[in-house]
Automatic annotation (TrEMBL):
Membrane topology: Peptidoglycan-anchor
Gene3D superfamilies tied to this protein: 2.60.40.740, Immunoglobulins
Coiled coil: none
Domain Gram-positive cocci surface proteins LPxTG: 435-467
UniProt subcellular location: Secreted, Cell wall
Keywords: Cell wall, Membrane, Peptidoglycan-anchor, Secreted, Signal, Transmembrane, Transmembrane helix
TM segment ranges: 440-461
NCBIfam families documented for this protein: iso_D2_wall_anc, LPXTG_anchor, RrgB_K2N_iso_D2
Signal peptide: 1-28
Protein known as: Isopeptide-forming domain-containing fimbrial protein
Protein source organism: Macrococcus hajekii
Length: 467
């Protein structure tokens, strides 16, 4: 065999091999695709632009974190059916039942920027669903299908780094309200030292069980003290939540800050009660002796939250709904109508109970007459009672000033309200005592009678002697 024939034969064999393997070579040249899913807020679906598919100009929307996806590789016929009826293939159960196989894969959770990547998807048809999240209210462009690879805009190749943008609207953000002692009560009055509860009421939107943070804070006004004899409590729909398990509550006396932070266990229990169940946080407090009589003492609260899907924020009680408490008092003056009198003593009644008040702290309790606090008029005749809840009371005089008489009715009614402490002092009148004078009419009468008897005796004696 000549050299020419030998080389020509080798050339033919090589050409045959190239022709045999050229389909496989062409198939191997089809690129794999890296798919980056951008989870963003939005409520409309539309065909993506090439600038969006390449992330040159991404669509508007805030990123949503901690959302994952499951996907299947399907046949072309299955793909076309699912595209035409996407609403019937939204769940893993629906897709697996139709496709007849388990999922091809599941992504991780979207990061803080809302993205998660599926790398190296080979040529073919894919169907993606979004895994359920209770924080999601509505979805757009989900589920979605991909026929890979996708040709670039110029038609000269493929988009090897593909970007898609399924959208969600999330459940509404929580708000917060606050009342006093009872639901919807925005204004109340109390004695100084009387314990009462602020009722803090944050809303509990769907998806709260996925929240990374749900914390209520309340900075107490300087004239309100935390009641250390009681505990902060919380209920959901009337069911008591467990401190230390469902929530952790603290009070910092230095900053006067109440903090109630709910745990993941607590948030799950709250979610289980349903979005219509009312969450109540009860913070026990008392008014202290720094309160200005009659003045409203407002107190608000703040909720900070992180829905674990990129939405971090806070809410405070609306200005028009901030509740307030009050305490009041009354001023008095003891007088005879002309001169103010010192040394008169009084006790205060409410029904059949008598006021007992610590002179330093002004803390009020109620008890028997024997234990009642005695109020004494000073050198100017003045005295006052402070730190009482608004209402009607009676002042009972138990000792009159020297030289004066206790009235036959020693009770004087008075009212404590928003303005009572700043009004003119209520006058308590007394009359002077009137006593017989020594050597007065009583002595004169006896003297006159005695003289008359002596005169009569002398006359009778003389008549008898003359006879």
């Amino acid at each position: 065999m000549s050299k020419f024939t030998k080389y020509f034969s080798l050339f033919l064999i090589l050409s045959l091999l190239i022709s045999l393997f050229s389909p496989f070579t062409a198939h191997a040249a089809s690129p794999s695709t890296n798919v980056t899913i951008h989870k963003i807020t939005g409520d409309t679906a539309r065909t993506a632009t090439y600038d969006e598919l390449t992330n040159t100009t991404p669509p508007a929307g805030d990123p949503i974190s901690n959302i994952s996806f499951t996907y299947w590789k399907v046949t072309e016929d299955q793909f076309n059916t699912m595209i035409a009826n996407s609403g019937s293939y939204e769940t893993a159960a629906q897709v697996s039942a139709y496709v007849g196989s388990a999922a091809t894969g599941t992504t991780g959770n979207t990061a803080a920027d809302g993205t998660v990547q599926v790398a190296g998807l080979a040529e073919g048809y894919y169907w993606f669903i979004e895994n359920p999240s209770t924080a999601v209210a509505t979805s757009a462009a989900v589920p979605f299908g991909l026929a890979l690879p996708i040709t670039n805009q110029a038609g000269t190749g493929y988009i090897t780094d593909l970007h898609v943008y399924p959208k969600n609207t999330l459940e509404e953000v929580p708000t917060i309200d606050k009342d006093i002692a009872t639901d919807n009560n925005k204004l109340s009055t109390f004695d100084i030292g009387q314990s009462f509860n602020w009722i803090i009421q944050p809303t509990t939107p769907k998806g709260i069980d996925e929240y990374a943070n749900y914390t209520v804070t309340d900075t107490l006004n300087a004239v309100i003290d935390f009641d250390n004899t009681k505990q902060i409590t919380a209920t959901i729909g009337g069911t008591t939540l467990t401190a230390g398990t469902d929530f952790n509550a603290t009070y910092d006396a230095g900053t006067r800050l109440v903090t109630v932070k709910f745990t993941s266990t607590g948030l799950k229990n709250i979610a289980a009660a349903g979005p219509d169940a009312q969450l109540n946080i009860l913070v026990p407090t008392v008014i202290n002796n720094q309160a200005v009589m009659g003045q409203k003492i407002p107190n608000t609260a703040t909720l900070t939250y992180d829905n674990n899907h990129g939405l971090v924020g806070s809410a405070t009680v609306a200005d028009a709904d901030i509740p307030a408490v009050q305490t009041g008092g009354k001023k008095f003056v003891k007088t005879d109508g002309t001169t103010n009198l010192s040394g008169a003593q009084f006790v205060v009644k409410k029904g059949d109970q008598y006021l007992i008040q610590d002179p330093a702290t002004l803390v009020v309790t109620w008890g028997t007459r024997d234990a009642a606090t005695v109020f004494t008029s000073d050198t100017s005749g003045n005295f006052e009672v402070k730190g009482l809840a608004f209402g009607d009371y009676q002042l009972e005089e138990i000792q009159a000033p020297t030289g004066y008489t206790i009235p036959t009715n020693p009770l004087t009614g008075f009212t404590v309200n928003e303005n009572s402490y700043t009004l003119d002092s209520l006058q308590i009148l007394n009359k002077k005592s009137i006593l017989p004078n020594t050597g007065g009419m009583g002595t004169i009468l006896f003297t006159v009678v005695g003289l008359m008897l002596m005169t009569l005796a002398i006359i009778l004696y003389r008549r008898k002697k003359q006879a």
